[in-house]
Amino acid sequence: MNSTKKDQLLKLRAKMAADKTLPLRKTATCMVFGEGNPETKVFFLGEGPGYWEDQKGRPFVGNAGILLDKLLHSIELERKEVFISNVVCFRPPENRDPEDAEIAAFKPYIDEMISVIDPKIIVTLGRFSMGKFIPGVKISSVHGKVHRIQLNGKEIVVLPMYHPAAALRRNDVMLQIKEDFLKIPELLNEIKENKEKTTQTEQLEII
User: Which CATH architecture has domain 5-202?
Assistant: First the structure.
C-alpha cells in the first residue's frame, strides 16, 4: 500500500530529528520542521526559526508569522491550506543569518520535503531561500517576478518575495510584499485553467 504524503513527511521529520550531524542543534531549543497541508499547491520557504519558532517548534509564529497570516488572508488563503518551512530547521544563535554550510546540511531534507509535497508554486521568503532556486541575483530586482524552473523533472513556479520581517521594518517593503502576494491567486487560476484545458484535450483524444 502506498504511503500518503503525510506519512512520508512524518518519516522525514523523524529522520531529521535523529540526524546528529545537523548543525545548530546544540544551541536550539527544538527542531522546526514545517507545517501545513501536504496536498497544497503553494509551498512557502523562509530562512530559519526565530525566538518564538524555537520555543514553539512551529514556523512563522512570531511577529513575522502574524504578518504572513494577514497576507494569506488578504488573498483568501489560510495557513492550514499551504505548507511552510525554512532552509534551516534549527534556530541560528541570536537570530543571525544562516551560513552556507548550514543551508547545505539541511538541503537534502528540504529537497525531499519539496519532492514529497510536489507543489506547483514555491514562494521564497527572503534572500536565502531565494538563492536556493535563483542564485546570484538581488531580491530588490526580482521580488514578485515569476520564475519557471525545472525541479524533479517538472516545471515549477518560483515566486521570490521579501521576508515578512523586512516588511515590518520598512514601509516600502510592506507595500511591495502586499502587491507581490496578489500574484499567488493569479498563478493558481492559471494552473487551474491549464489543468482544465489538458483534461478537455485528453477527453477529446479519447473520443
Answer: 3-Layer(aba) Sandwich (3.40)
